[in-house]
Structure formats: C-alpha cells, structure tokens
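Quick one: structure for this chain?
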Amino acid sequence: MNENSTAGGAGSDLNPGDEALPGTTGTGEDVCPVCRGSGKLASGQPCPECGGTGKIVEGIGGG
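Got it. Here's what it folds into:
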C-alpha cells in the first residue's frame, strides 16, 4: 500500500486496494477481490479495500 493513500470517502484519490491513481498510464480498473465488486462486506459494511466502490486500480503491464 502507498504511504500517501487514504481510506475511501469523499475527496480521497486512493483506496487501500489501489496500486495507483485512477487514470495512471499502465493501469486499469478491476473488480475488488475482497467484496467481489459489490462495494460491501457480508456484514453490510462498506468494503475497506475499495472504499465501497467495488473497483480497484491495478497495473496491467507485462514484461
């Protein structure tokens, strides 16, 4: 996790599951592996990994 990231919510750019800022070259959105895209945990609480969005940003590069 990036030291400059913040938990989800209004005004935050990164969630704990994000590898980069949205729109960063070489990244793309993916379904959050923790909540499986629902944005919520089984308990009904917002997912802490994606900040309740159901999506994470991760690297797509190969090499």
